[in-house]
Design brief:
The chain has 542 residues and is of the alpha+beta class. It has two domains: 8-147 and 199-248 and 362-402, no CATH class; 251-356 and 423-538, 4-Layer Sandwich (Glutamine Phosphoribosylpyrophosphate, subunit 1, domain 1). The chain has 19 helices and 20 strands. The chain has helices spanning 12-23, 28-42, 116-127, 132-145, 151-159, 168-172, 176-182, 199-211, 214-217, 220-231, 238-243, 270-280, 285-288, 293-313, 324-327, 330-341, 446-458, 464-469, 488-496; strands at residues 5-9, 52-59, 64-70, 87-90, 97-99, 147-148, 195-196, 247-249, 252-256, 259-263, 362-368, 374-380, 426-430, 433-439, 473-474, 479-482, 500-503, 514-519, 522-527, 534-538. It has a seven-stranded antiparallel β-sheet, with helices on one face. Strands 9-10-13-14-18-19 form a six-stranded antiparallel β-sheet. Strand 15 (473-474) and strand 16 (479-482) form a beta hairpin. The two termini are 14 Å apart.
Length: 542
C-alpha cells in the first residue's frame, strides 16, 4: 500500500510520534508540532521549548502559505560593547565568536529570549486541528518513560566541542538536573543504550499542556525562569519573556531552472540559499558530473560569495538594512558567476580563525499529509547554554555566542535583536504543486547542506534518500571542507589550483538534511544517515 502522507525527523521517536498523529487524523501541523516537542525530549541539546527556529507552513485548502520566524532575541539588558574586551577570535566558518571565559557560550549570560514554545503553540492554535493538550501528550509520556541514548546523541556528547568552545560534558553537567540525568554514578556520561528519564521536564510539559504557552511567557514558569536568571547574573528577564513575539511573513521566493522556491527571510539563511542557486543557474552542473573537481570548485565559489555577502550585510532586518534586492538580483548573480567562470578565487575573511566547523546542534522535521498540507521546521538551541533551572527540566539556548561583540556590524549585539542563523526550511514547487519539502540542522553549514540536496534532486534527478545521503562539501571560508567519501583523485586537481582542501574523518557531515520529494503524486523521503532519524510513510484512507 503506497503512502499518501509522510514525516521525516532526525530522531525515530519523533518520527513515530508524528506518524501516529497522522494515522489518527491530525494534519501536517499537528504532526510536526507533536514531533517537535518529542524532539526536545529525546534530543535535548539539539532543540527544546527554550530554543529558536523557523517554520514554513503550506495549507492549500485554506489558502495559507506562511513562515513563522521564532529566532531568539537578545535580552534588553544587553549592550553592544559589553563583551568587546573579551574577544579572542572568530570561528573559521563564521558562526560564532570565542570570548575569554566563554561567557557568551556557557552559563546564564549565553541565553537569548526563547521563541520555540510560542511558535509551536501558535502553529497549533492557528493551523492545527488537534487540542494543544493532545499535541503535548507524546512528549510528556516520553519524558516520563525516558529514551535510550542513540549513537548521534552520544557522539555529540563526546565529540561536539570545537573552536575553543566549552566541552559538551561541561554543558551537560553545568546544572544539578544535568548531572543527575545525563551522567552515571561514577561521573561518566551515559553511553549508547542507557536510559535518560527527565521527570522535571515531564511535569513542566504537563503544566504547559494545561495552561498553554502563556504560563512560560507570562505565568508561573516565567516567574521561575526570571528568578533563576536574576539569582545567577543572567541577562534574561521576566519583561523579555512577556514581550517576546514571533514574526510571520509570506515566504521569500526565488526561481531555479523553472521551479519556484519558497524559504525564510533574514535573519534566517534563506537569502543565502537563493543567492547560491541564482549563481549556479549559470552553470551546466549536470554536465560537469556530480562531485567532480570542477563541480566542487564552482559550488564552493558560490558558497563563498553568499557567505561573504551574509557576513557583510545579513542580520535582523529590524536593526540592519539588508540589501535584499541586490543579494537576490539575477544580474548580480550572473556577475558573480562570470568571476567563477574566469577561475577567480573569491575570499571570506575571518578574525583569529579557529580550525574546525561548528557542531550540528539543531534538528529538523518535514511533513506532508494526505490533503497536501506541508510543513518544514528547523529548530535549535544554538550551542546550548548548559543551564537547566532547578525543577524545570529543559536546557536553555546559548544563542548569544553568535552575536558579534564588535559594535557597528550586521551581527553586533543590540537589545531585542535576533541573531543570524543559517536555518532555511524550504519548499520547492513544480507547476504550482509542492515538489520538495526540506530542511536541515548543522550550524552555519545548514544552507550548504540544503543547497547540495536540492541540486541532487533537481539537477541529478536523485530520490530524496539518495540526495541526502550523497557525500557533501562546503566552503564558508577560504578552505574547502570535504567529507571522507569524496576521493582524493577528485581533490588533487583542486589542490593543484591552489585550494586549501581539508578532509574530514567523518563519513557524513556538512549539515544533516531531511526532506520529502513529491514526484507524480508519490512520496519518497530521506533522513540523513549521519543522524539517527527515519522517514515514515503513512497511508490515510480517504
Amino acid at each position: 500500500m503506497s503512502s499518501n502522507a509522510m514525516i521525516v525527523c532526525a530522531q525515530p521517536e519523533a518520527s513515530e510520534a508524528g506518524a501516529r498523529v497522522l494515522m489518527q487524523g491530525g494534519n501536517a501541523v499537528d504532526a510536526a508540532m507533536a514531533a517537535a516537542l518529542v524532539q526536545g525530549v529525546v534530543d535535548p541539546q539539539m532543540c527544546g521549548i527554550a530554543g529558536f527556529g523557523s517554520c514554513q507552513i503550506y495549507l492549500p485548502g485554506k489558502g495559507v502559505h506562511t513562515c513563522i520566524d521564532f529566532h531568539g532575541k537578545t535580552p534588553m539588558a544587553a549592550t553592544p560593547d559589553m563583551w568587546l574586551d573579551r574577544l579572542e577570535g572568530e570561528t573559521r566558518d563564521g558562526f560564532g565568536f570565542v570570548l575569554r571565559d566563554n561567557i557568551n557560550d556557557l552559563g546564564y549570560q549565553a541565553i537569548t529570549t526563547p521563541g520555540s514554545l510560542l511558535a509551536y503553540s501558535e502553529a497549533i492554535r492557528d493551523y492545527g486541528s488537534w487540542e494543544w493538550s493532545d499535541i503535548c501528550a507524546p512528549a510528556i509520556a516520553r519524558a516520563r518513560t525516558g529514551f535510550a541514548v542513540r549513537p548521534h546523541v552520544y557522539h555529540w556528547w563526546t565529540h561536539g566541542a570545537d573552536f575553543g568552545r566549552v566541552e559538551i560534558t561541561d554543558r551537560l553537567g553545568y546544572s544539578k538536573t544535568g548531572r543527575d540525568i545525563y551522567f552515571q554514578p561514577d561521573g561518566s556520561v551515559k553511553k549508547i543504550g542507557d536510559q535518560v528519564i527527565n521527570p522535571d521536564l515531564a511535569t513542566t510539559l504537563e503544566r504547559i499542556a494545561r495552561h498553554g504557552a502563556e504560563i512560560f511567557y507570562q505565568g508561573e514558569i516565567a516567574e521561575q525562569i526570571a528568578m533563576d536568571m536574576h539569582s545567577h547574573g543572567g541577562l534574561l528577564s521576566r519583561q523579555d519573556l512577556s514581550a517576546y513575539r514571533t514574526l510571520r511573513a509570506a515566504p521569500l521566493q526565488g526561481r531555479y531552472r523553472g521551479l519556484e522556491l519558497h524559504t525564510n527571510h533574514p535573519p534566517g539563511g534563506g537569502v543565502m540559499l537563493l543567492q547560491m542557486l541564482n549563481i549556479l543557474e549559470s552553470f551546466d552542473l549536470a554536465g560537469y558530473g556530480h562531485n567532480s573537481s570542477e563541480y566542487i570548485r564552482i559550488v564552493c565559489e558560490a558558497m563563498k560569495a553568499a557567505t561573504a555577502d551574509k557576513d557583510a550585510h545579513v542580520g535582523d532586518p529590524a536593526f540592519v538594512t539588508v540589501p535584499m534586492e541586490r543579494l537576490l538580483d539575477k544580474q548580480y548573480a550572473s556577475e558573480l558567476a562570470g568571476k567563477i567562470q574566469n577561475h577567480q578565487k573569491l575570499s571570506v575573511t575571518r578574525l583569529g580563525s579557529q580550525s574546525k566547523p561548528e557542531p550540528p546542534d539543531t534538528t529538523q522535521v518535514s511533513v506532508v499529509d494526505a490533503a497536501g498540507n506541508c510543513v518544514t521546521m528547523t529548530h535549535s538551541l544554538g550551542m546550548p547554554s548548559g543551564v537547566i533551572s532547578d525543577g524545570l527540566g529543559f536546557m536553555y539556548n546559548g544563542c548569544m555566542g553568535v552575536f558579534d561583540p564588535r559594535p557597528g556590524r550586521a551581527g553586533s549585539i543590540a537589545p531585542g535583536k535576533s541573531r543570524f542563523s543559517s536555518v532555511c526550511p524550504t519548499m520547492v514547487f513544480k507547476a504550482g504543486e509542492p515538489h520538495i519539502v526540506i530542511g536541515a540542522p548543522g550550524g552555519t553549514q545548514i544552507a550548504m547542506g540544503v543547497l547540495q540536496a536540492l541540486l541532487n534532486v533537481i539537477d541529478f534527478d536523485m530520490t530524496m534518500s539518495d540526495a541526502v545521503s550523497a557525500p557533501r562539501f562546503s566552503s564558508t571560508s577560504d578552505v574547502i571542507d570535504i567529507m571522507n567519501r569524496i576521493p582524493d583523485y577528485t581533490v588533487e586537481p583542486l589542490r593543484e589550483m591552489g585550494y586549501d582542501v581539508q578532509r574530514s574523518a567523518h563519513t557524513f557531515g556538512i549539515a544533516a538534511v531531511h526532506g520529502i520529494r513529491i514526484d507524480q503524486g508519490k512520496l519518497d523521503g530521506g533522513a540523513d544517515p549521519g543522524h539517527d532519524g527515519v522517514a515514515l510513510g503513512v497511508h490515510i484512507s480517504p
